[in-house]
Amino acid sequence: MDINPSKWKNDLKAKLNEYKRVLKISSKPDREEFEMSAKITGAGMIIIGIIGFFFYLLANLVPSLV
Predict the structure, then answer these.
(1) Where do the structural domains in the chain lie, given as residue ranges?
(2) Could you read off the pLDDT tens digit of each residue along the chain, which spans 66 residues?
């Protein structure tokens, strides 16, 4: 395996420049955007919880019926 420090340095520099560019164009969400994201995330959590609870009930009720 060839270890070339100058290549690693160039790769690291390029990656850091990419990160810097992303941070420059990103911005803090306004209140409306944050509320929408929170609502969608909450709805997803509730849906996944309901599906999990449904499987829990099936796993506990079906063996007692069989």
Answers:
(1) 5-65
(2) 567 778 888 889 999 999 999 999 998 999 999 999 999 999 999 999 999 999 999 999 888 877
